[in-house]
Amino acid sequence: MGTGKTLSGVRVLDFTRTVAGPFGSMILADLGAEVIKIEHADGGDDARHLPPYWNEDSAAFLALNRNKKSVVLDLKSEQDRAHILQLVQSCDVVMESFRPGVMERLMLGYDVLSTQSPNLIYCSVSAFGRGPLGRQMPGYDALLQAFSGIMKATGHPGSPPTRIAPSVIDLNTGMWAAIQILSALLRSKSEPGPKRLEVALVDTAFNLMCHQLIGFLATGEVPLPQGSGSPITAPYEVFRARDGDILVAAGNDRLFKRLCQSLKLDELVADERFIDMTDRVRNRHALHEILENVLLTEPVSKWVKRLTEAGVPAGPVHDIRQAVEHAIVAERGLLVPCEGQMRNPDLKLLRLPLGNDVASFREPPLLGQHTVEVLASLARTNDEALVDPDSA
């Protein structure tokens, strides 16, 4: 692990919850920012209560909140609101993921907080944005997968709408939030003054469907479920082998020829149904059946070895246990232990793909773990402000 100095000295006040916002603020924390997570006393972030658990901690919360400090404050309390206003004075970034209008009703919106810090970057994360239509629309990852067409294009032909298992819209929205904030921090050097940023799950969802969307605009054809396959190339999908499943990705003419040679199906190269990619996509089901009949004759490991040696991309279809136990996980250093005194001594967390400039991992905080520390720093700041510098 590196030192995580890229954002050293940057202070983030984080009002986000659940997945999207916390993932974005964790990216900043891993890059060295001090992230102060504001939570309510009644249970804190909802992610703290999502099963399964690692001992007493939610796995979802552990995955998204390392390297942060937790401070419990009541946003409806005048006293705690005053603490927030004072905290903002020392912050570079504020992140929030309430429904549009909530922070304004709490008198903690951009117009108020930007008066407390001259170069404040204020980033809102919402489902459909803060416009007159979007502000009325609720949203979670699954709702956006349904809304954007992702579910209708996922699964097998004839299957009901299928959700992609990872929270891809939430997680990608968190990344877009971090990218916007990093861009704003860079611009602040030449463009001083407060900046209001907005990241919406709906924008992320449509961008995840970018080539399907442009394809629809070009052809008028609605993308349909392809199982494990791709609508733009074939063979590029999962096949059954004797003892399991194998994914073969022969995504161009050269690879298709190598695949046919490896399977001793050289005649397919000249078959008019499979001459080029357009032909293979059009006749994908017939091609799948021919290839699978051969692949069923041998185990996955034998086919992976043979196809890989021939330069054809192919690999086994793992469950999460098989994937994590593969040696590449250790080679890449993907799972990293936390430092310091641990309530979960065997806890390992997944590093972000940020290269070497990543802070060492501190265990995600207990609810309110840093409230006394952070509020005490405010008191010290007040005391220092009372000292007449000319009398020192």
Description:
With 392 residues, the protein is of the alpha/beta class. It folds into 2 domains: 11-208 and 327-383, Rossmann fold (3-Layer(aba) Sandwich); 236-317, formyl-coa transferase, domain 3 (2-Layer Sandwich). The protein is built from 16 helices and 13 strands. The chain has a 6-stranded parallel sheet with strand order 5-2-1-6-7-8, with helices on both faces. The radius of gyration is 26 Å and the shape is elongated. The two termini are 43 Å apart.
Tally the structural domains: 2
CATH topology assignment of the largest domain:
Rossmann fold
Order of helices and strands: EHEEEHEHEHHEHHEHHEEHHHHEHHEEH
User: How many strands?
Assistant: 13
Helix content: 25-40%
CATH superfamily of the largest domain: Crotonobetainyl-coa:carnitine coa-transferase, domain 1
From the structure provided, what is the oligomeric state, counting identical versus distinct chains? single chain
Structural class of the secondary structure composition? alpha/beta
- Average pLDDT confidence is 93
The CATH architecture name of the largest domain reads 3-Layer(aba) Sandwich
So what's the overall shape? elongated
Percent range for β-strand residues: 5-15%
Q: From the alpha-carbon coordinates, what is the Rg to the nearest angstrom?
A: 26 Å
Distance between the termini: 43 Å
